[in-house]
Amino acid sequence: MMYQALYRKWRPSTFDDVYGQPHVTKTLKNELENNRISHAYLFTGSRGTGKTSCAKILSKAVNCLDPKNGNPCNECAICKGIDNGSVLDVIEIDAASNNGVDNIRDLREEANFTPANAKYRVYIIDEVHMLSIGAFNALLKTLEEPPAHVIFILATTEIHKLPATILSRCQRFDFKRISPEDITARLQYVAEKENVVLSEPAAALIARIADGGMRDALSLLDRCFAMGSNIDENVVSSAAGIAGTVHLFSFSEYVANNDFTSALKLVSKLHNESCDIDSLCTELTLHFRNLMVAKTVKDIGNLIVCSKEELENLVKRAESLKLSKILECIGILEQTSKNIKNASNKKIQLEAAVIKMCGPSVSSGSSSSPELEERINIIEEKLNELLKNGIKVSAPKEEAKPSPEEKLPKKAEEPPKEEKQEAAPAAENETIPDGEFRNWSEVLEKLKACDIPLFGIMSDSTAAFKNGRVYIYSSNPTLYDFICNDGTHSRFLSKSIYEVLGRKMKIAVSTNENKPAEQSPLEKLKVKINDFNNN
Question: What is the pTM for the complete model shown?
Answer without folding.
Answer: 0.58
